Amino acid sequence: IAKVSDPQIESANDRHRKYNITKLLTTIIECSTIMPFRWCANKFMCFYCGCPFVDSSKLKQHTREEHSDAKLKNVLRNNRC
Prior knowledge:
alpha+beta, elongated, 52% helix, 12% strand, 3 helices
């Protein structure tokens, strides 16, 4: 018996999965001391604005000072990895 997949159902499932991941990541980051970042060309990149840092402590300071009230849910939803 062959299963026929419906593209609309798959799309809805993908959206639901992304929503759940976004919700989980938001909770983890907001309720912990985790400091999100990207890594590129041997530099720490600010998760929120992309500013490069060689020293992780400078990145932590920047994130606390510049992005303390950033809307994490919006950043995660718009993140294209």
